[in-house]
Amino acid sequence: MKQIIYCFLLAAFFLTTGNANAQSGNKPKAVLNHLAIYVTNLQRTVDFYSNVFQLDTIPEPFHDNKHAWYSIAPGVALHVIAGADKPKEYFLNNHMCFSVASVDDFVARIRARNISWVNAKGEPGLITTRVDGVKQVWVNDPDGYFIEVNDAKN
Questions:
Q1: For 11, which of 27, 60, 67, 136 is 20 to 30 Å away at the CA?
Q2: What's 114's DSSP letter?
Q3: Rounded distance between C-alpha atoms, residue 11 and residue 14, angstroms
């Protein structure tokens, strides 16, 4: 009888432990690895992300002059891939976002390069200030991809 009770308690322990692990989030989950954009002119796009956004390149395995990779967050990359036949039209709400220390300083940098920007309503040359005080602007890269730039303090 003691052996049956012992086995029952042991089984209950393992079942409870397994259930607790599943509920505590120990299951594997998906994490962002990279974003990829398809561009018409690799060098022009590399110049844009390297100089305007001051992103750091990271090694890419292909070495075929059709790819450039950037580090955009810890463990996250932006893959720029050459070969698009023409730029496409994108919606403002379909964008990636970078935070900077100062939107005003960023606007001064893009203004010096004659790069236009819009606010959240798509109005040219204006800066949005959200209700939480975060400033935002949107720019297009050379292929028309929208990029939000804000000063959010994450």
A1: 27
A2: T
A3: 5
